[in-house]
């Protein structure tokens, strides 16, 4: 894990700061997966079934959920739109376990590119098409803060998984 992560400015406008943190954590999650064999990428540790490949599949889904579905009211991309949640509550994670690594990262990279495009010209105060479960509007600002939180939490998981695989510690 020798990749240099994007710098986060100490002074910037709100949008620049939010996007810098999001880009940092996106890169950090990808970096935690670098240089592993397919077997290591799918390795479980301890009592959990969480793996690095499952985290990448989950975050591809989450990117699409917030920026495609909630913000713009669109369907998920084809690979994700017909998941059977009744049969598997972790469908976005288990789906990718049988995929080639390159296909998983392609899905993830496409989800990020699509998310970036969908929020490019949207003001932070703009609300999504799909409201919360309680019927409240959800702003792009809220989505960005939530995505930073989601990535930060899962990067912590990835740190522990990666260290248990080969002893590599996050920078």
Description of the molecule:
The protein has 171 residues and is mostly helical. It has one domain: Up-down Bundle (Four Helix Bundle (Hemerythrin (Met), subunit A)). 57% of the residues lie in helices and 0% in strands. It is built from seven helices and no strands. The protein has helices at residues 14-32, 38-41, 52-72, 78-81, 91-94, 101-119, 140-166. Helix 3 (52-72) packs parallel to helix 6 and helix 3 (52-72) packs antiparallel against helix 7 (140-166). The longest helix has 27 residues, at 140-166. The termini are close together.
Please summarize what this structure is.
With 171 residues, the chain is an all-alpha fold.
User: Helix-strand pattern, N to C?
Assistant: HHHHHHH
Share in helix: 55-70%
Largest sheet data: none
> Which class best fits the helix and strand makeup?
mainly alpha
SSE diagram, text form:
Elements: H1 14-32, H2 38-41, H3 52-72, H4 78-81, H5 91-94, H6 101-119, H7 140-166
Any key phrases for this structure?
single chain; 171 residues; mainly alpha; Four Helix Bundle (Hemerythrin (Met), subunit A); 7 helices; globular
